[in-house]
Write a structure and sequence with these properties.
single chain; 214 residues; alpha+beta; 4-stranded mixed sheet; 4 strands; globular; binds glutathione
Length: 214
């Protein structure tokens, strides 16, 4: 058995943050497939009792520990590996600031937008899609401005704040109906830099469940 198990599925940007981290730190890990779409495993009493009371993926299992919330998992892995760890109090707080902004403003809007556009049955109402897209675009513009100042969020080196921020940004542009990297040039250049990290892999190659069965 691998050292780490990650409960995850390929379509999830929330899961991707943590799968990418495991990959770029060179961890010994294996995915445990969460059948989110068909079986809704994350909503079963068994999952909530034994895996994550919050009913969400990702979950990282390490020995007897089970951790959820991608930001917590990223911090744990950074502290255990010494990699992508923000240094000193100011950097730690700055990393947390961007991780929370990502969770609340970017992933929180881009994820549901992509979900209701591609996976929900029936597909979401146009007004809902427009609302989520506008909120996501506003947050992406803030990220783009930040990345005009330095190669990575905190400066010259990538940290867990950058790994978190990749969440939904490598999924195919057809799934969004617009090209994030082309519309936000600094985000596009930063995505290329992140892609050059040893161990980088696309979410659909790193986690199980793609393509979805029809
Ligand atoms: N803030 C959480 C978000 C996790 C999350 O919302 N995961 C989704 C999958 S992408 C989920 O499991 N949702 C539960 C559901 O919709 O039943 C994190 O970063 O880990």
């Amino acid at each position: 058995m691998a050292e780490y198990q990650l409960y995850c599925f390929a379509q999830s940007g929330n899961c991707y943050r943590t799968a990418l981290m495991l990959s770029v730190i060179g961890a010994d890990w294996e995915p445990v497939y969460v059948d989110f779409f068909k079986a809704g495993v994350q909503r079963t009493p068994d999952y909530r009792e034994n895996i994550n009371e919050m009913g969400e993926a990702p979950v990282l299992a390490h020995g007897s520990k089970k951790l959820s919330q991608s930001g917590v998992i990223l911090l744990y892995l950074a502290e255990h590996s010494g990699k992508f760890l923000p240094r000193g109090e100011d950097e730690r707080l700055e990393a947390l600031r961007w991780i929370i902004f990502d969770n609340q403003k970017i992933g929180r809007n881009l994820g549901p937008y992509r979900f209701v556009r591609n996976f929900a049955k029936p597909v979401g109402e146009p007004a809902v899609l427009e609302f989520l897209k506008a909120r996501a675009q506003g947050a992406l513009a803030i990220l783009d401005k930040r990345l005009s100042r330095s190669p990575y969020l905190l400066g010259a080196e990538p940290t867990i704040a950058d790994i978190s921020m990749t969440s939904y940004l490598y999924y195919p542009s057809e799934e969004f109906g617009f090209d994030i990297a082309a519309q936000h040039k600094n985000i596009g250049a930063w995505l290329d830099r992140m892609k050059a990290l040893p161990g980088w892999a696309h979410p659909y190659d790193l986690m199980p469940g793609h393509p979805l069965p029809q």
